[in-house]
Structures are given as C-alpha cells and as structure tokens.
Design a protein that fits this description.
- The chain is an alpha+beta fold.
- Helices cover about 25% and strands about 35% of the residues.
- The protein has an eight-stranded mixed beta sheet.
- The radius of gyration is 15 Å and the shape is globular.
- The protein starts with 5 loop residues before the first strand and ends with a strand.
- About 25% of the residues are buried.
- The structure holds zinc ion.
- The site of zinc ion has 6 residues, from strand 1 and strand 5.
Length: about 130
C-alpha cells in the first residue's frame, strides 16, 4: 500500500549539540529518539509527529557538517523525503537531468536506505531521499 511522499526528517547543522538540544527537547517537548551517527556527524533525533528533527554536530572539521558550519554557520542543512519507491524516484530524477550526490542508495542514520540530490538541481535545497 503506497503511503505517498512525506517529510521524514529535517537535518539541522549545530555547532554545539549539548547547548541546543534542551531547546528542542525541553522547551518544544520533542522526545529524543536514538539514531546512529553518520557521515562524521553526531546526531540527536527528536520525534515531531510523523517526522524527525535531526540535530547534526560535526565530529571533525573535514566532515560535510563541519564544512557546512564553517562556511554558513549553523542552520537548516537538508530536508529528507520518504518515498514509496526510492530506486524509481532516483531514476526519475536522473532521467530528468538532476545531479545526484549518491548514484546508489546507502545506509543512513535511521538504518534505512538513503540518497542525496545535489542542491544545484533542487532550487538550492540539499534534498535527501529515503524509504518509509
Ligand atoms: Zn538526513
């Protein structure tokens, strides 16, 4: 039964996880959800209904989040959409001429297959695709 495309999570680059986590957890009341670290980032997951907020703190300056924060400062880093058919969606994007960062799906922080699309093809937004 197809679920349709929905927002899986919003990735937010932070400079100090321990300093910003209480805002989301204690003031907004989003429950913490354990996630694996990925791509050289320490990740805190927070449940917001059907979606997650992922706070991403660089473990090293050379990691993608480290470079992002050094260049632009902390802030929204990417948005992740869960789709019914990840391979099919990637193929549609490829055929439409979009630039894919990941040519093949790989495992992300939630233990699901993911792939990133390049922001130069998506109106300046780093878009991650995953499965339900
Ligand atoms: Zn993500």
């Amino acid at each position: 039964m197809p679920k349709g495309t929905r927002i899986a999570h919003v990735g937010i680059a932070v400079d100090a996880l321990d300093r910003i986590l209480p805002f989301y957890r204690d003031l907004l009341g989003l429950p913490e959800e354990p996630l694996d670290d990925a791509d050289g980032a320490r990740i805190a997951g927070l449940r917001a209904g059907d979606s997650l907020v992922e706070l991403l703190e660089a473990e090293t300056p050379e990691s993608p989040i480290g470079k992002f924060v050094a260049k632009r400062g902390p802030g929204i880093h990417h948005i992740c959409f869960a789709v019914d058919d990840l391979n099919g969606t990637m193929e549609r994007c490829r055929r439409a001429g979009l630039k894919l960062i990941d040519s093949q799906p790989r495992l992300g922080a939630e233990g699901k297959r993911i792939a990133f699309l390049h922001p130069s093809s998506t109106g300046g937004v780093l878009v991650e695709l995953t499965e339900h």
